């Protein structure tokens, strides 16, 4: 019914416009075509973290701009041989803006962007080599993830110090990284410094899954940490980080999520697992994605350069709802250790 009314209004408006143009010599103005944007996911959705946050940014763009924008998301999977040809293909399809996310897309984008100088690209969580004036058609956005992981480190150390994590559960903090690379180690550095701000002599166990999609490997490493005396673990490992939560659920441990509010994302399908996630360090890919589009519409998106977003831009933070709310934090106090003891 609503669609019928809208159609009639549109027809009436068109007749009136035509009449005015005919009578007064007013030039007709064609309706502006919808912008077309696409997000290439170099992996699969369902990580409840980085990639899903990127899609949330596209959802926000659609909510804000409605029919004035056409959005598309393409899952390329983890087979890296498919990334370059997919990027080449979409670069020929007339998109106003092509988004790629994660540092792993830097090399494919460097190849393609140089061959399609009229196409505009947004690279999230990576940067191009802009020396020499190249890549004037690419905007890069990076994050001050160490600001957020500093907060995560303070939270983890504070929960151990005040006894919310019982001493018999473990007094060491854990860190699970996807890979031993600069961006992940930036998380680690902030985590260590935040924890040391609370407990200067804190001990932190560090493991790398060498993968961003192997959740089984993530669980294996997290289990080893918990059994060695880790009281609470922090994962910055994409889908592999889901293994951290599975391990926490198995041994009655605690964990901190990353990128998006992973407790909120997991609770509808696995509330027991969600109960083990005290909070998540927020790396707001969704904010950066939507922000870039708004700047693009204003013709102020600084192509040919990189920006670094942090807490002050609303792109970094710590989830303060759910389990971290003051009236619910008591859920972690006095937890029995029946399952922990059986796995040490």
Explain what the structure shows.
This protein is α/β, with parallel strands linked by helices and 344 residues long. The chain has twelve helices and twelve strands. The chain has helices spanning 2-24, 50-65, 83-90, 106-115, 145-161, 182-198, 215-227, 242-251, 262-266, 271-274, 285-297, 338-343; strands at residues 35-41, 69-75, 97-101, 121-124, 138-143, 172-177, 204-208, 230-236, 254-259, 277-283, 305-309, 316-318. The strands form two sheets. The protein has a six-stranded parallel sheet, sandwiched between helices. Helix 5 packs parallel to helix 6 (182-198). The longest helix is centred in the first third of the chain and has 23 residues, at 2-24. The radius of gyration is 24 Å and the shape is elongated. The model is unreliable at 1-30, 327-331 and 333-344 (pLDDT under 50).
Which stretches are poorly predicted, pLDDT < 50 over at least 5 residues?
A: 1-30, 327-331, 333-344
Share of residues in helices: 40-55%
Q: How big is the Rg?
A: 24 Å
Major sheet summary line: 6 strands, parallel
Query: Cα distance, first to last residue?
Result: 64 Å
Count of alpha and pi helical runs: 12
DSSP strand count: 12
General form: elongated
Order of helices and strands: HEHEHEHEEHEHEHEHEHHEHEEH
- The share of residues in extended strands comes to 15-25%
Give the strand order, joined by hyphens, for the main sheet.
2-1-3-4-5-11
Structural class: alpha/beta
Q: Residue-averaged pLDDT, rounded?
A: 87
């Amino acid at each position: 019914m609503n669609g019928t009314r809208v159609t009639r209004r549109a027809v009436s408006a068109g007749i009136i416009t035509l009449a005015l143009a005919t009578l007064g010599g007013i030039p007709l103005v064609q309706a502006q075509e919808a912008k077309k944007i696409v997000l290439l996911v170099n992996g699969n959705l369902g990580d409840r973290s980085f990639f899903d946050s990127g899609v949330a940014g596209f959802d926000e763009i659609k909510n804000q701009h409605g029919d004035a924008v056409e959005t598309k998301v393409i899952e390329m999977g983890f087979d890296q041989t498919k990334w370059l040809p997919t990027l080449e293909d979409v670069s020929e399809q007339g998109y106003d803006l092509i988004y790629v996310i994660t540092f792993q897309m830097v090399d494919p984008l460097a190849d393609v962007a140089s061959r399609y100088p009229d196409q505009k690209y947004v690279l999230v969580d990576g940067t191009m080599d802009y020396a020499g004036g190249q890549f004037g058609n690419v905007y890069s956005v990076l994050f001050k993830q160490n600001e957020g992981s500093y907060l995560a480190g303070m939270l983890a150390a504070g929960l151990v110090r005040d006894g919310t994590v019982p001493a018999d559960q473990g007094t060491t903090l854990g860190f699970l990284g996807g890979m031993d690379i600069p961006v992940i180690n930036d998380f680690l550095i902030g985590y260590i410094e935040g924890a040391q701000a609370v407990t200067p002599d804190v001990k932190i166990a560090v493991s790398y899954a060498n993968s961003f999609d192997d959740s089984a490997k993530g669980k294996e490493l997290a289990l080893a940490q918990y059994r060695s005396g880790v009281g609470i673990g922090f994962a910055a490992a994409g889908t592999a980080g889901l293994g951290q939560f599975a391990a926490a659920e198995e041994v009655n441990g605690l964990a901190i999520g990353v990128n998006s509010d992973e407790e909120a994302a997991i609770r509808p399908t696995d509330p027991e697992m969600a109960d083990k996630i005290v909070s998540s360090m927020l790396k707001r890919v969704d904010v950066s994605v939507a922000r870039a589009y708004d700047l693009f519409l204003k013709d102020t998106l600084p192509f040919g350069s990189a920006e670094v977003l942090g807490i002050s831009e609303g792109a970094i933070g710590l989830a303060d709802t759910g389990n971290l709310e003051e009236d619910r934090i008591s859920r972690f106090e006095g937890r029995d250790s029946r399952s922990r003891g059986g796995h040490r």
